[in-house]
């Protein structure tokens, strides 16, 4: 499962930050997941509980998922538009000269530590 390895890397980042910043446990992790990414929030949540339980730093931590809407820049209209799927045509002109500008990312936005 794709989400399992993603969760493991999230926990690894949390543990590295704990060592770097000197905190012992993390209580909440806010994770941004782009709507255009293939990451399933439900699966992330499920995997997070399992992986966090094995980590002294993240044990019992809560995962809060923030969805980042997809947006793309259209070269034909020279404007930014919301899109639901990565290969959608431009909602304004129907063109396909779009560059995705957000919605593909997955990153830790914030952590509540103790
Ligand atoms: Zn357009």
- Specify the number of helices: 2
Question: Mean pLDDT, rounded to whole units?
Answer: 95
Which cofactors or ions or other ligands sit in this model? zinc ion
Shape, per Cα inertia axes: elongated
How many whole angstroms does the radius of gyration measure?
Answer: 17 Å
CATH topology of the domain at 2-69 and 103-113: hypothetical protein PF0899 fold
Supply the helix-strand structural class. alpha+beta
* Corresponding CATH architecture of the domain at 2-69 and 103-113: 2-Layer Sandwich
CATH class label of the domain at 2-69 and 103-113: Alpha Beta
Order of helix and strand elements from N to C terminus: HEHEEEEE
Structure commentary:
Helices cover 28% and strands 32% of the residues. The protein has 114 residues and is an alpha+beta fold. It has a domain of 79 residues: hypothetical protein PF0899 fold (2-Layer Sandwich). The strands form two sheets. The protein has a three-stranded mixed β-sheet with strand order 2-1-6. Helix 1 crosses helix 2. The chain is elongated.
In short:
By secondary structure, the protein is α+β, with helices and mostly antiparallel strands. Helix content is 28%, strand content 32%. The chain contains 2 helices and 6 strands.
List keywords for this structure.
114 residues, hypothetical protein PF0899 fold, 28% helix, 3-stranded antiparallel β-sheet, 3-stranded mixed β-sheet, alpha+beta
What is the topological layout?
Layout lengths: L1 H20 L4 E9 L6 H12 L9 E7 L2 E4 L4 E4 L15 E5 L3 E8 L1
Parallel strand pairs: 1-2
Antiparallel strand pairs: 1-6, 3-4, 3-5
The structure holds zinc ion.
The site of zinc ion has 7 residues, from loops.
């Amino acid at each position: 499962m794709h989400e399992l390895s993603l969760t493991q890397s999230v926990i690894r980042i949390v543990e590295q930050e704990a060592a770097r910043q000197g905190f012992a446990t993390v209580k909440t992790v806010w994770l941004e997941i782009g709507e255009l990414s293939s990451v399933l929030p439900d699966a992330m949540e499920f995997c997070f509980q399992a992986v966090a339980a094995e980590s002294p730093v993240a044990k019992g931590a809560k995962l809060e998922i923030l969805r980042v809407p997809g947006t793309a820049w259209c070269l034909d209209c020279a404007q930014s538009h919301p899109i639901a799927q990565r290969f959608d045509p431009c909602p304004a002109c129907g063109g396909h000269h779009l560059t995705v500008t957000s919605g593909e990312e997955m990153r830790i936005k914030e952590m509540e530590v103790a």
